[in-house]
Amino acid sequence: MTVYGTRPEAIKVAPVIKALEASDDFESVTVVTGQHREMLDQVNELFGIVPDHDLNIMSHGQTLAQIFARVIEGLDPILEKEEPAAVIVQGDTSTSTAAALAAFYRQIPVIHLEAGLRSGDISSPFPEEANRRITTQIAALHLAPTEVSRANLLAEGVDDSTIVVTGNTVIDALLMTASKEVHFDDPALEALAASGRRILLLTTHRRENWGAAMLGVGRALAQIALEFPDVEIVLPLHRNPLVREALLPALNNIANVTTIEPLNYGQFTRLMSLSYLIVTDSGGIQEEAPSLGKPVLVLRDSTERPEGVAAGTTRLIGTCQEDVEHQIRQLLSSQELYDRMAGSTNPYGNGDAAQSSLHALRSNTDRRSANPGNMQTTTFGTTRK
Ligand code: UD1
Ligand code: UDP
């Protein structure tokens, strides 16, 4: 059973669900919590995934506690009914950790996809760093995207035999999507694509950036728009009203700023490919951009994705208005710096992470799980109640 609820989880579990569906030896059950609504549905639609269960929990202004409680309460009877051999959760969202806990309470083995990411700062990203650490404590199998994430798990005492390095399934999703010809629904984006102008793609949504930080980012980008009239800033807005309230006052009504609704993943992938530079606080985009050879300026002070920084493609710039302006200005003005960042390689995988994950699931089918939290021993392929 795969349980997910937000856009990034949906993108990253899609290749795994597709692989499970295509296999002869697994029966796939999908549960969406609906922590996100439109942004989640967009992804399922694109990948042709029709969830078996939908908890439909989203409300505007939802608190972390509300999401957590609704997921646990909604998922429990489904776990009872479906009796899955194992539950797959992805990453670090509230859906992910709540679903892991609900499964753990029923002594169903938890498979953690994208395990072992650590920023080292419990308050950033908030609450995701805590979520992923909690999930690590109760997971039976840790599917780590890179050797760095594996090392993080080992440093915390996780048993090596329960960790498999698979690559990140986001690269599978990206390659599945980027190989298709895609047209923008929005004629303005088609015109921009044809114009050959430099595109600065901006996305921001992180909880710790809500409020003053995001206001500053908006002002910084408005200043850049003024200084570089040849550059078009494109901003697919997160659905969260708080994000819109913070960004739009500074960026509305500027000739070379285009604000749009979230794009479906196919169109967003094309927009990333067309972009000159990406400025973001997104986790997934930090992983995708290196594959596309796009420099990324990250609106955060720390990252759980240091591989991109080490490879030279991503750079942490924080959210201070002056710093954001300075770093963007530098990259838009220096061809040498730009070429150095754009020329780096992708450290996050080569597109076979979903198959590696299935392989790891198979190899663990008859193996006793070594749970650090050590409940009673569980065996994959058997549901214990
Ligand atoms: C969540 C995740 C975050 C992930 C992000 C991806 C947690 C704690 N946070 O944050 O890790 O990076 O998703 O985008 O799990 N909304 C809609 N429609 C949608 C989606 C969101 O209207 O399709 C609005 C709702 O008003 C909702 C609000 O956005 O209440 C916030 O959504 P929420 O899932 O709580 O937080 P995100 O910031 O999206
Ligand atoms: N994305 C998308 N449409 C958009 C913006 C982003 O499909 O308009 C994709 C992006 O390519 C990446 C994922 O959404 O795969 C990232 O989601 P988000 O930034 O919301 O969450 P995070 O990765 O930070 O958890």
TrEMBL record:
EC class name: isomerase
Transmembrane segments: none
EC number: 5.1.3.14
GO molecular function, one term: UDP-N-acetylglucosamine 2-epimerase activity
UDP-N-acetylglucosamine 2-epimerase domain sequence ranges: 18-361
UniProt xrefs under InterPro entries: UDP_GlcNAc_Epimerase_2_dom, WecB-like
Pfam annotation, one family: Epimerase_2
Family: Belongs to the UDP-N-acetylglucosamine 2-epimerase family.
Protein name per its UniProtKB record: UDP-N-acetylglucosamine 2-epimerase (non-hydrolyzing)
Organism (species): Oerskovia rustica
Organism phylogeny: Bacteria, Bacillati, Actinomycetota, Actinomycetes, Micrococcales
